[in-house]
Amino acid sequence: MCEMNLNDVNPYLHGLYAPVREEVSADDLPVIGEIPRELHGAYFRNGPNPAEPPKGMHHWFDGDGMIHGIWFENGRARYRNRYVQTEDLKLNGASPLGGIFEPSREAAGRKVNYRDTANTDVIVHNGKLLALWYISGQPVAVDMETLETIGAENFGGKLPRNISAHSKTDPQTGELVFFDYALYEPKMWTGTVSREGALTQFQEIGLPGPRLPHDMGMTENYVILHDLPVIFSEQAIRNRLWQIHVADQPTRFGVVPRKGGDVKWFEFPTCYVYHVINSWEDGDEVVMAACKMVPNGLKPDPKYGPYAAMADVLALRAQPFLWRMNMKTGEGREEQIDDALSEFPVVNNAYAGRKTRYSYHVIFDDCIEQRFSALLKYDLQTGQSERHDFPKGVYGSEPAFASRTGAIEEDDGWLVTFTTDMDGKSEAHVIDARNFSAPPVARVTLPCRVPAGFHGIWAQGAQ
Ligand SMILES: [Fe+2]
To answer: In Å, what is the CA distance from 195 to each residue of 153, 173, 175, 199?
Structure first.
């Protein structure tokens, strides 16, 4: 199949997913409704945005990272989008590294096997944004006001390897609590960087084989690592190929003291988990809430040609669960919160690592392409939920929870998300978390399209 046809049949290069080429800045954006005065801060969302038309097979996960940001202050909003200027992007198409449909390669001085795009999520640490990558790469520091790339962050040369997407910052201590994994080695690592940017802890964890975790849990005192049964075959490891399968083995979560120490493993019925909702400590138990994958029941669609399998894998279907791990007895218990399907969970990040009552999830449209047609607000104590539907034909991003300035209650604030329709019109929606099913209190018209993407975060004005 020629190059032209390949890009034509890749659903993740068209419509909602088509990359935008321009970097835009716009102030004082038009608003439908009213931006609350107590909404002060910024919402940032990362995602793949290939800088050049792909030349071969292209996975949605391969696109160069682009961050879209909207800042709210005094009832007004401004927007910007900027590429994350990674080492590979700066090479202008001359990077020796490729995407995950290609065999992995080595590049001098690089600790990654594929083109490191920093496209997956974005977190706030030490007054900066850090753009992170799901295959565990070099964090890229980005200015929170301008979205200009500051540069690759190695914490004064002290970072031994890489940092994976879904590493977290602790809102109480300001620390960056991170994990790292190697594609073809039976190891994971975890560590801590202080609020000021000093590496204070680093530990290697041995595994039965190489693993492909996507997220981790963080509590006040522990990190929860994921040993999941989606793995590379022996042959894939030998030939360094991205060929994964589901192995017949249990799921294990490893609880590691944040200050360093032995890992305690807990075995559970086999499952894959992309995203953790939140984790906390409850007496002797370490508790992790997360979205557990269930089969999507869809048949790969032949209209996508060689991308049928990719499209099928991207049709995420999951249900919220709790895993309780007793550090005294070593016993683990799994509890289902609800049977509704949702993913991309977020909480009020001021409570990350502490018990949360509420979480906010994305509901997928009932089609094979990954489209977010509604949001769910969960009460994790009762399993009850409320739903917020986007208008028909309008699709959201992973939202972030924005606290009302001076808020005391966990859900006193708004969900902020970007939306895009099939005509390419984008908005930012501000949804009252306590009047969740109601229409947004404000819809901000954006000056350009925001393609569907991955993860978002809120930075409170004081940050
Ligand atoms: Fe993710």
So the answer is: 14, 7, 5, 10
Distances in Å between the Cα of 322 and the Cα atoms of 285, 286, 341 are 12, 10, 15
CA of 345 to the centre of ligand 1 (A): 10
Give the Å distance between the CA of 193 and the centre of ligand 1.
21
| Alpha carbons 241 and 184: distance in angstroms, whole number | 9
Q: How many CB atoms lie within 10 A of CB 83?
A: 20
CA distances from residue 443 to 30, 278, 416, 453 in whole angstroms, order as listed: 9, 28, 10, 19
Kindly give the distance from the C-alpha atom of residue 31 to the centroid of ligand 1, in angstroms, as a whole number. Answer: 30
The b-or-e profile of 332-345 (16+ CB within 10 A means b, else e) is beeeebbeebbbbb
List of long-range contacts for 127-132, beta carbons under 8 Å, 24+ apart: 127/463, 128/153, 129/44, 129/67, 129/459, 130/163, 130/176, 131/46, 131/65, 131/67, 131/84, 132/163, 132/164, 132/165, 132/166, 132/167
Stretch among 207-211, 313-317, 422-426 having the lowest mean pLDDT: 313-317
Question: Ligand 1 mean position to 2 CA, how many Å?
Answer: 31
**pLDDT tens-digit series, residues 38-57:** 999 999 999 999 999 999 99
Spatial distance between the Cα atoms of 55 and 91, rounded to a whole number of angstroms: 16
Backbone angles phi, psi at 235, to 5 degrees: -65, -40
Burial pattern 203-213, b for ≥16 Cβ within 10 A else e, equals bebebeebbbb
Distance of CA 33 from the midpoint of ligand 1 (Å) = 32
How many CB atoms neighbour CB 133 within 10 A? 27
Å from CA of 120 to ligand 1 middle:
6
Ligand 1 centroid to residue 145 C-alpha, Å: 24
Residue 73: helix, strand or coil by DSSP? strand
pLDDT number for residue 1: 44
Rounded average pLDDT over 247-260:
96
pTM strictly above 0.85: yes
For residue range 363-419, list pLDDT tens digits in order. 998 888 899 999 999 999 999 999 999 999 999 999 999 999 999 999 999 999 999
Write the secondary structure of 420-442 as one string of H (helix), E (strand) and C (coil).
Answer: EECCCCEEEEEEECCCCCCCCCE
